[in-house]
Amino acid sequence: MKVISFMTRKSDTITEETKARLVHSAESEFALHGFKGASLRQICKEAEVTTGALYFLFKDKDDLFRSVISPVTEAVRDLVNQHYMEESMLSQLNASESEDEDFRAAEAIVGIYFKRRRICNIIFQNRDHEAVRDFFVLRGLLVKRAGGCQSGASRYKNMSETGECKRGK
After folding, report:
1. How far apart are the first and last CA of the chain?
2. What is the enclosing helix (H) or strand (E) of 157?
3. Percent of the chain, pLDDT > 70?
4. Does the pLDDT at position 164 exceed 50?
5. Residue 139 C-alpha from the chain's centroid
6. Cα separation of 140 and 8, whole Å?
7. Angle between helix 95-115 and 61-90 (nearest 10)
8. CA 48, CA 90: separation in Å to the nearest integer?
9. Is the pLDDT of residue 162 over 50?
10. How far is CA 138 from CA 14, 53, 82, 116, in A?
11. Which of 1, 30, 41, 81 shows a CA-CA span of 20 to 30 A to 110?
C-alpha cells in the first residue's frame, strides 16, 4: 500500500504570511489614498485575501493603519527613549558630549526616514489620524518624563498641556 503524505503549512505561518501581505497592501493603499480614502476591499484584493481574513487579523481599519506605521513609530519611540536616557546621563558631563549625542540621535532619525520613507510620508500625510497624533504627543510626554523641556543648547521653562515645550523668557 502506498502512503501519500501531504505537506501542510502550520496555520501560524499562514496567518503571519497573510498578515504581512495585508500590511504591505495597506501600506500601498494608504500611501496612494491616505487613511480616509483607503479601501479595505482594495487592500484585500491586492493581498488576495477575503475581508473576513482581514477582520480576523485586525480589529478594524485603524488597527491595520497602526500596524502599517508601527515600524517607524516604534523605532522613533525607542530612539527618543534612548536619547533622553543618554542626555540625562550626559547632563552632568560637558556640553560637547551632549551635543555629540544630539547629532547621533538626529542622524538616527534621518536614517529611519530614509529606510522607511514611504511609511514616514504616510505618517506626515495623515497627521489628523489619532494614532499619528498620539505618536507626536507621546514624544512630548517623553520629554516631560525626562525631567523638563530641553533641546540642545535651548532650554524651555514651561510645557503646554499638549506636551509641547514653550520657550522660557
Report:
1. 90
2. strand 154-159
3. 69
4. no
5. 12
6. 48
7. 160
8. 51
9. no
10. 34, 32, 14, 20
11. 30
Phi (first) and psi of residue 94, to 5 degrees: -80, 160
Contacts 24+ apart (CB under 8 A), 104-113: 105/79, 105/80, 108/79, 109/76, 109/79, 112/72, 112/75, 112/76, 112/79
Amino acid in position 83: H
Is 126:30 a contact under the CB 8 Å cutoff? yes
Burial class (CB in 10 A: 0-12, 13-18, 19+), 29: buried
Distance of CA 52 to the CA centre of its chain: 26
Q: Which helix (H) or strand (E) holds 153?
A: none
Distance of alpha carbon 133 from alpha carbon 135, whole angstroms: 5
Q: Copy the grid coordinates of residue 161.
A: 498641556
- Which range is least confidently modeled, 6-15, 20-29, 66-75, 86-95? 6-15
Return the ∠ at Cα 83 (arms to 81 and 89), rounded to 5°.
Answer: 105
